[in-house]
Amino acid sequence: MATFIDEVTLHLRAGSGGNGCCSVKREKFKPLAGPDGGNGGDGGDIVLVADPQVTTLLNYQHKPHRTSESGGFGMGDFRNGTTGEDLFLPVPVGTVVRDANGVELCDLAEAGMTFLAAEGGQGGLGNAALATTKRKAPGFALLGTEGEETSIILELKVVADVALVGFPSAGKSSLIAAMSAAKPKIADYPFTTLHPNLGVVQAGDYRYTVADVPGLIEGASEGKGLGLEFLRHVERCSALLHVLDCATLDPGRDPLSDLDVILAELEAYPVPPGQTPLLERPQLIALNKVDVPDARELAEFVRADLEGRGYRVFEVSAASHEGLRALTLALGQLVEENLARRAEEAEHRPRIVLRPKPVDELPFELKVEGGTYGPVYRILGQKPERWVAQTDFGNDEAVGYLADRLNKIGIEEALFKAGAQAGSTVVIGPGSGIVFDWEPTLTSAAEVMSSPRGTDSRLDENTRATRRERREAYFERMDAKAEAREELERERRAGLWTESVERYDDDFDDE
């Protein structure tokens, strides 16, 4: 027999992004034709999907560890890595997703709703994508980031229109079997129902779902019996049907006292914010087992008291199907009224406004923490943390590129304002993170490279002068010669020279 599982813990690990490729294109007669390294592929996401065809979490109980596909590495000749395939996990409609601390993340209350549980890593760029007019031959590529790794809790809350509540052995399972095609376990001992049973009821033009909740006892809201474990399945129901046993032989029990106990437990159970309290929802009462003569007499006796409290009362028998027609029609009417009310509320529901982030908002947060050898400056933010994860610290050019990226978003200026000095400890990321000794004058790795960063001496352009440049240089030389002749002639006329200027002109031309 299949076990009913309504809460499981999933351990998810999304696919990692592939590394970019650092490559130089080589062809015949073009041994160095420029960078051609491809980008790495993105890792696959893990997505939860509310599927109406799925009714249990049993599959995840046996296989709680799920992993999506990682992205492929980039390759030469501009070949990008393959993108990891997303992993879609179908869950029953009415599943609540919580994190490891119990904080609610999402409520998959409608069919087709999706939730991104774990995001895949981002693929690194190849050196072809990093090439610019100033960095024509990058000697590095970016690494792919790791996929998100997390643990979540899936809690199933049965989605039904009507919930049957009552004491154990009140005949709820027999009643749902008589009203629908459901076949729950039925026996003559208490707590026969160990998990909720669902049944679809067709009454005239009404069609709705009924849930048989395990029996409640006094103290159920405090954890006694099975009530606390399954009371959460009543949260999604729009109407309640109190099934009262009129043929019980237990001393001290009668339909009125049973109802008072059930109402007290429903009132003590806290519902999530935004939901209607259980006792404020439409409620009907079914006096069950009236096929027994003594039970019929008791039902007729307490009917007036229950109607005096404002309840609609139906005398039914799951064995003989007496009174079921009127009961199912009344429940169908309640469900239809509730659907109409929900549709009206949806029309007046406030619109969700998505506000973009301010343009001047810094993409990082700087915190100053106390350390043993002085203050530690910690930088937190999605961008700087991702950039650090994509950097190959064994490549000086890649480290210089990281320094330029961090400087562009204002990290160095923020460190100056925070009082950081040369040699201060800077940590990027939470926890241990990546530790640097900050040197404000060193903004790149150009000082430790033999040539300017982003250049390759083998790919230098031809520096041969153009025809226009040669003509301008020729005219400059002619003007200089003419000026020299005039200077010699002035000196000769002043008596400084005895030889003719033509001789000096010949000597000047020989030079």
From TrEMBL:
Question: Can you give the residue ranges of the Obg domain?
Answer: 2-159
Q: So where does Mg(2+) get bound?
A: S173, T193
- Which UniProt keywords are given for this protein, alphabetically ordered? Cytoplasm, GTP-binding, Hydrolase, Magnesium, Metal-binding, Nucleotide-binding
Is Metal-binding one of the keywords?
yes
InterPro entries referenced in this protein's UniProt entry, alphabetically: G_OBG, GTP-bd, GTP-bd_Obg/CgtA, GTP-bd_prot_GTP1/OBG_C_sf, GTP1-OBG_CS, GTP1_OBG_dom, GTP1_OBG_dom_sf, OBG_GTPase
EC class, as a word, reads hydrolase
| Cell compartment(s), UniProt | Cytoplasm
Q: Can you give the residue ranges of the OBG-type G domain?
A: 160-336
Q: Where does GTP bind?
A: 166-173, 191-195, 212-215, 288-291, 317-319
| Annotated Pfam families | DUF1967, GTP1_OBG, MMR_HSR1
Residue ranges of domain OCT in the record:
356-440
Listed Basic and acidic residues bias regions: 455-468
Q: How does it assemble?
A: Monomer.
Family (UniProt): Belongs to the TRAFAC class OBG-HflX-like GTPase superfamily. OBG GTPase family.
What does the function comment of this entry state? Answer: An essential GTPase which binds GTP, GDP and possibly (p)ppGpp with moderate affinity, with high nucleotide exchange rates and a fairly low GTP hydrolysis rate. Plays a role in control of the cell cycle, stress response, ribosome biogenesis and in those bacteria that undergo differentiation, in morphogenesis control.
Q: Which NCBIfam families match?
A: Obg_CgtA, Obg_CgtA_exten, PRK12296.1, PRK12297.1, PRK12299.1
Protein name (record): GTPase Obg
Question: What organism does the UniProt record list as the source?
Answer: Pseudoclavibacter albus
Gene that encodes the chain: obgE
